[in-house]
Amino acid sequence: MKENYEKYVTTMRKIADIDNAAVLLGWDKEVNMPPKGAAFRSQQIATLAGISHEMFLEKDFVSNLKKLEANKQKLSLKARRNVEITSKKQNRSNKLSTEFVMESSKAISEGYHAWLKAREQKDYGVFKKAFRKLVDLKKEECELVGYDNHPYEALMDQFEPGAKVADLDILFADVKKQLIRFTKKIATYPQVDNSFLKKKYPHQKQWDFGLEILKRIGYDFDAGRQDISPHPFTTNFAPSDVRVTTRIDERNFGSMTWSCIHEGGHALYEQGLPPQEYGLPSGLAVSLGIHESQSRLWENNVGRSLPFWEANLPLAKKYFGANLKGVGAVKFFKAINKVHPSLIRVESDELYYHFHILIRYEIEKGLIEGTYSVDNLNEVWNEKYKEYLGVKVPNDLKGILQDIHWAYGSIGYFPTYSLGSFYAAQFYAKAKKDIRGLEKQIAAGDSSQLLAWLRENVHRHGSTYSAAKLCKKITGEELNFKYFMSYARKKYKAIYDM
Amino acid sequence: MKENYEKYVTTMRKIADIDNAAVLLGWDKEVNMPPKGAAFRSQQIATLAGISHEMFLEKDFVSNLKKLEANKQKLSLKARRNVEITSKKQNRSNKLSTEFVMESSKAISEGYHAWLKAREQKDYGVFKKAFRKLVDLKKEECELVGYDNHPYEALMDQFEPGAKVADLDILFADVKKQLIRFTKKIATYPQVDNSFLKKKYPHQKQWDFGLEILKRIGYDFDAGRQDISPHPFTTNFAPSDVRVTTRIDERNFGSMTWSCIHEGGHALYEQGLPPQEYGLPSGLAVSLGIHESQSRLWENNVGRSLPFWEANLPLAKKYFGANLKGVGAVKFFKAINKVHPSLIRVESDELYYHFHILIRYEIEKGLIEGTYSVDNLNEVWNEKYKEYLGVKVPNDLKGILQDIHWAYGSIGYFPTYSLGSFYAAQFYAKAKKDIRGLEKQIAAGDSSQLLAWLRENVHRHGSTYSAAKLCKKITGEELNFKYFMSYARKKYKAIYDM
To answer: In CA terms, which of A469, B72, B197, B371 is 20 to 30 Å from A15?
Structure first.
């Protein structure tokens, strides 16, 4: 089996080289490409994707993998997992005919254009027809791909392998029960003042400050770089080249700062993946939920904590002294954690955020089950926003048309955002137990032990353990919403003097 | 044949997509990549190169091309040329065994490292052994590939298809006879003053000025961009995305300015190639000599002319007023064209430049013929510099070790630099005949008719005509050194008041 496994590894690495080249073409498109370059660039990316796909489904590669799968008890734990994950992906690909994939691509392209048009007119009606087609195809995909208990699992599985509707139902029931009550309670206390965060924060100074903050959390600039793009993202071509982007809004201190820390968290994960496992599942992030746990742990549990700003407020004052005159760490900490319901997911605080996801989860599951219809989905949306957040949606642009995901045919993706926060809280609670005086270290500007802990417990494993197993391995128990609630209670009671 | 030709085109475009992706990986490596990214990046580029190579020599593609070649009289002129050029390239590839190619790669890698080490120690002796291996392999390559008259042609052919030693001997005999006499004569006249070009020209202002100049010569920033890199270069992924780089030396006005115009000239060619011929020879530059004719025409014939600076000196003064106070267009024109022998090729003026190439041409030809030996080549080098330029080479770093080409196994490349200048002079003479009042237009800041003339006569043809045929088609005669000499005589008589 050794020779077969090596053969498998060689092809997997070739495929990774091609995929990573395509990722660079995509990164360059967002960051550097002149406008006229778009047409040939799309063609070049499509060619690489085609070659990678062919190689992944190539006869010899498939039959070799089948042999490995049949003899997997002879392989090491890591090798076995690699073979299992790869086989699963191959099976999924094989279940979708070329015609179906092409029809889906076409529907996505049409969906995206209809969505853009609908946004212009602030009218969900314009998106409806294309969206119905997308949803029908997604339902068909569930049946083609297969699932254990609920069709929606067939979709989630691409983003969060192994995720079950039954588990998510429990998590989101907790969100509904505990978080709605808690945010309602917060709303009865006097609101914090965050007006100084909306003063003018000059572009260049924000840029320099962001780079400093990235360095302070441990991002390795010898294995990455930061650029500007309209929507911040992290991308990687190998653990030794992991790039982040940010955006700068001169009237908003937070937009750049926490996008830097958030993307920085993603990037720390990627920089910490084992380079010797390049191209194999064991060298790749295990799931989007775990990926998001890394970005949110740094963004929220660390980056919006009092200790972090005890260490870093002096740096902020070095750049923005006038704006932050008379602002102490506690006042700053309160301001950056202001809780208030908003219409837009990406502008939400970290508590109301989960209602945005809850709503999308309920709607997606309902669409796939058939209990919701595309027809009046904007009304469903608006009712849920009224019920969970207490806000009135003034138009579809600020409502159901706000996210790109559905227009791109991404159904089953949203839950990973909440999973990320919940994993983050559970991991961080454990890290605080494992690392003596962690918060004191952070207050002294030193997060190196935390990073080392994440490297050891999360990053270096790649996909060797499933998300669920990893959580159990690290924390000794399954994912449990109580860690998030207890983090939230402690933090926001302090902020709102409850 | 129509179906066969379409099949050929489809594969050629796929190959181009892969090659262009690899080119982006290379560009990014020079411009953006963090240092630790190097190892995986090299592997990714190698994987793409391997896939492209396999596709180019794939059985069905080869047999289809053979069919086309056998029936080429049924194809259009353009299609026939495409098939011929592709077949020729394929034949060359087939003549070199995988072992030979791998041995060459290894020799190049070792050559490059030996060269770096030799440069450190300023000692050609350190490079000798690796260089001998490279030269031996190149000699073997000539025999494997085959040639009509002279083995050196087998090497030149990769860079300047169809170039003949007999023709180059005539050109370089003219260089020797006419240009040595002319530069010796210039040396008897009082030298021009260019001291104001060595004042401090601040980085940011140079950057902004360079962008303006690029715009003024017609470079399309919607289909390209400029970045900084240690060695300026032009790269392209399609005619709609052609990028240039430049370098900035604050103590040298010229370094950035003419590198911008030079690379801009290359880029105008690439931006002018027909996008509908993407991936085919008819959509690619015909030869390095013709490519260099475009960069040098803009750099020297236009960019170091009096009319160009009548138009653009005011812009330069806008940025560098203090440095250029009291400098008129004529004084400026003289200063930027100062003729003096130098040791370093890339620092040379446009006349002595050709002695640098002449020497390399004589040495390369001699090495391949066997009339020169690697053993004492630095002595040969130094003697020739004494004889043709009248300069004493103080050490090998400023002598035979100055260029990277040989260390990279590029033998047969250097002559294309001189060919570029000679083609440029001949083309520009014809352009001046064809475009009424061209120099007046340029003096008024308008080079659009010149660009349109180049688009029409050079760019749009891609490789549809060979370099020799293109020259004849445009100018009515073969490449002739007299155009360069007459351009040089007229220009430098004015500069040196001869």
So the answer is: A469
Whether CATH 3.10.450.50 fits A122-498? no
The CATH number, out of the four listed (1.10.1370.30, 2.102.10.10, 3.10.20.740, 1.10.1510.10), of the domain defined by the range B113-498? 1.10.1370.30
A297 within 8 A of A459, measured Cβ to Cβ: no
- CA-to-CA distance for B241 and A284, rounded, in angstroms? 32
Q: What predicted TM-score, i.e. pTM, was given to this entire model?
A: 0.93
Of A276, A244, A249, which Cα lies nearest the Cα of A260?
A: A244
Residue from the list A13, A21, A36 with its beta carbon closest to the beta carbon of B25 = A21
Distance CA A442, CA A218 (A): 12
Residue B241 to residue B152: CA distance in whole angstroms: 35
Helices (H) and strands (E) in chain A, counts: 21, 3
pLDDT digits (tens, 9 = 90+) for B359-375: 999 999 999 999 999 99
DSSP A18-84: HHHHHHHHHHHHHHT--GGGHHHHHHHHHHHHHHHHHHHT-HHHHHHHHHHHHTGGGS-HHHHHHHH
* Termini Cα distance of chain B: 62
Q: What is the pLDDT of residues A79-123, one digit of tens each?
A: 999 999 999 999 999 999 989 998 999 999 999 999 999 999 999
Q: Which residue do the tokens 């991002």 mark? A: A219
Inter-CA distances, B98 with A292, B56, B95, B221, Å: 46, 14, 10, 41
Q: Is B201 left (phi over 0), alpha (psi -120 to 50) or beta?
A: beta
Q: Domain coordinates of chain B in residue numbers?
A: 2-95, 113-498
User: Are the C-beta atoms of residues A475 and A426 closer than 8 Å to each other?
Assistant: yes
Q: What is the gyration radius of the CA atoms in chain A, in angstroms?
A: 23
Q: Which long-range contacts (CB under 8 A, 24 or more apart) does A428-435 make?
A: A428/A297, A428/A301, A428/A302, A428/A487, A429/A475, A429/A483, A429/A486, A429/A487, A430/A474, A430/A475
Give dist(CA B487, CA A407) in Å, integer: 62
Q: Report the alpha-carbon distance of residue A336 to residue A43 in Å, rounded.
A: 43
Q: Which of A172, A101, A124 is nearest to A365 (CA)?
A: A172
Q: What are the CA-CA distances from residue B419 to residues A157, B156, B160, B381 (Å)?
A: 61, 12, 9, 21
Residue the block writes with tokens 């806000």: A391
Helix (H) / strand (E) element for B246: namely strand B241-246
- Phi, psi dihedrals of residue A168, rounded to the nearest 5°: -65, -35
Among all residues of A, which ones are annotated catalytic? Answer: 263
**Partner residue facing B241 (CB), from A36, A223, A241:** A36
What are the helix (H) ranges across A220-339? 253-271, 288-296, 306-320, 329-335
Distances (CA, A) of B414 to B123, B356, B382: 22, 9, 18
- CA–CA separation, A269 vs A284, rounded Å? 10
Q: Is A326 left (phi over 0), alpha (psi -120 to 50) or beta?
A: left
Q: pLDDT digit string (tens) for B272-320?
A: 999 999 999 999 999 999 999 999 999 999 999 999 999 999 999 999 9
Residue among B17, B34, B225 whose CB faces A32 most closely: B225
Contact present, B178 and B486 (Cβ < 8 Å): no
Q: Which of B141, B153, B263, B299 is catalytic?
A: B263
| CB-count exposure of residue B155 (10 Å: 0-12, 13-18, 19+) | buried
Q: In chain A, which residues touch B (CB < 8 A)?
A: 13-14, 17-18, 20-22, 24-25, 28, 32-41, 43-44, 47-48, 51, 220-225, 237-238, 240-241, 275, 278
Residue A252 one-letter amino acid: N
